């Protein structure tokens, strides 16, 4: 019995100091956390101010990055386009045997895999409706401009193959690249004022190119050409092309960043891109296209008149000499 009492006292003596220490530390902790001085309050307020400043700066930076900027470079390819195209077999042979073509293919595949997912174009329409740049307010200088690539397609009039190079040479052309119904609305917002003013001009061209690089979509569009004809005015049939040409390697050059939106290009008589717009037009962009088209038409008309006058005067000199 005495041994049992002794063991109980021993246990109590071991437990009691632990309980006292725990309770004392808890009191100290409570007292230290409840007593907050002016210095701690000021440090907290400074921290909150600095965090608010950082948040404001980051939001301002993101807003600046998200802001649309004007087109910063000429669009087009450096070489003047030709009508001849490589067949798929010729392109495959070049890719397999030409070191430069292999390097180009590898670079392109890596870029596509890293930067572009399956739903990239669709997700991009959530920002500014897919618009990636603002059209220039003036013409791109001729000495800095690049060429519009040759695109082949079947004419809506008779199904014959036509090329933009032969259709646009010697004229001022507005070219619309379409892929979806919304892209038709986009291009119409740009071209409506220009067409109202210059559609009857003898040196003016308006081309619509329905680009369907996807094989399945191209087949579907070919099957529903009759419904497409009902939506297009008959006088526009010869200038409406349905193309299945693969523009994968010209996309970056001509600024074709999103398949879901429409693109409009102003091309001069030498096939150079002098102006470009994308997605839904702002009022000032549509006005800019109209003004720039008028400037190019006036310049071309003056040059043609000067050429005709020279030819006429030279012919008269020849007649007089005879």
From TrEMBL:
Region (Disordered): 25-79, 303-322
Bias type Basic and acidic residues, positions: 306-315
A Pfam family annotated for this UniProt entry: ATP-synt_10
Ranges annotated as biased composition (Low complexity): 31-55
Highest rank taxon of the organism: Eukaryota
Protein's recorded name: ATP10 protein-domain-containing protein
Gene Ontology annotations of biological process type: mitochondrial proton-transporting ATP synthase complex assembly
InterPro entries linked to this entry: ATP10 (IPR007849)
GO cellular component terms attached to this protein's record: mitochondrial inner membrane
């Amino acid at each position: 019995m005495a041994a049992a009492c002794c063991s109980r006292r021993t246990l109590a003596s071991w437990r009691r100091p632990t309980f006292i220490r725990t309770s004392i530390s808890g009191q100290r902790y409570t007292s230290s956390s409840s007593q907050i001085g002016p210095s701690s309050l000021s440090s907290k307020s400074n921290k909150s101010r600095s965090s608010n400043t950082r948040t404001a700066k980051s939001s301002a930076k993101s807003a600046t990055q998200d802001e649309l900027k004007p087109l910063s470079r000429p669009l087009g390819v450096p070489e003047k386009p030709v009508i001849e195209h490589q067949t798929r077999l010729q392109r495959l042979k070049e890719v397999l045997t030409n070191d430069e073509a292999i390097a180009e293919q590898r670079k392109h595949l890596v870029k596509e895999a890293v930067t572009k997912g399956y739903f990239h174009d669709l997700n991009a329409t959530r920002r500014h409706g897919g618009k990636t740049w603002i059209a220039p307010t003036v013409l791109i200088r001729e000495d800095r401009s690049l060429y519009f690539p040759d695109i082949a397609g079947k004419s809506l009039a008779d199904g014959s193959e036509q090329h933009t190079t032969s259709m646009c040479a010697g004229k001022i052309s507005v070219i619309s690249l379409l892929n979806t119904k919304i892209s038709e609305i986009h291009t119409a917002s740009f071209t409506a004022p220009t067409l109202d003013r210059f559609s009857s001009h003898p040196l003016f061209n308006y081309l619509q190119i329905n680009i369907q690089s996807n094989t399945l979509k191209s087949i579907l569009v070919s099957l529903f050409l009759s419904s497409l004809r009902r939506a297009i005015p008959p006088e526009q049939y010869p200038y409406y092309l349905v193309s299945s040409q693969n523009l994968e390697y010209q996309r970056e050059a001509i600024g074709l960043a999103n398949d879901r939106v429409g693109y409009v290009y102003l091309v001069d008589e030498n096939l150079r891109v002098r102006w470009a717009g994308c997605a839904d037009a702002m009022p000032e962009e549509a006005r800019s296209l109209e003004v720039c088209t008028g400037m190019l038409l006036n310049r071309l008309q003056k040059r043609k008149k000067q050429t005709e006058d020279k030819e006429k005067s030279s012919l008269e000199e020849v007649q007089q000499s005879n």
